[in-house]
Amino acid sequence: MAKLNVNGKMLDVEAAGDTPLLWVIREQIGLTGTKYGCGVAQCGACTVHIDGVATRSCSLPLEAVTADQKIVTIEGLSPNGTHPVQQAWIKHDVPQCGFCQSGMIMATAALLQANPKATEADIAAEITNICRCGTYARVKTAILDVVAGGTLGRG
């Protein structure tokens, strides 16, 4: 049994300590917005925030997360899809298939929270998620639109 703080709620979960956090989130908690892509923390489809840091959950064992750490999934980023990054994704028609997009949005939200004036070089260095459809140009455009709008930052 483990206690997790997910999207602001304290939850009891029952899983082996070596179970990847991704599977606890999806199968035990029932939040399926966080996706399984590669299983080796390379593609980023499984990205969640842990204490505000973009973290790839497919290779992070449950036992590495404590009850005092705050986990935020795509479902907890905004209750109604009004987060500035989500709005930019819609405005710029970023997704094609959409599978990787929750991870991309979570990685972007963490980057812009830490660095609201991110440059193209910052984006290239930090947003390393893989998109099978290749929507990278639209991703960059959407991120730069949020930066230009100044709608994110440390608050």
Automatic annotation (TrEMBL):
CDD domains: fer2. SUPFAM superfamilies: 2Fe-2S ferredoxin-like, CO dehydrogenase ISP C-domain like. This is (2Fe-2S)-binding protein. It holds the Pfam family Fer2. One of its GO terms (molecular function) is 2 iron, 2 sulfur cluster binding. Keywords: 2Fe-2S, Iron, Iron-sulfur, Metal-binding, Oxidoreductase. Residues 1-77 form the 2Fe-2S ferredoxin-type domain. PANTHER family: BLR6218 PROTEIN (PTHR44379:SF2), OXIDOREDUCTASE WITH IRON-SULFUR SUBUNIT (PTHR44379).
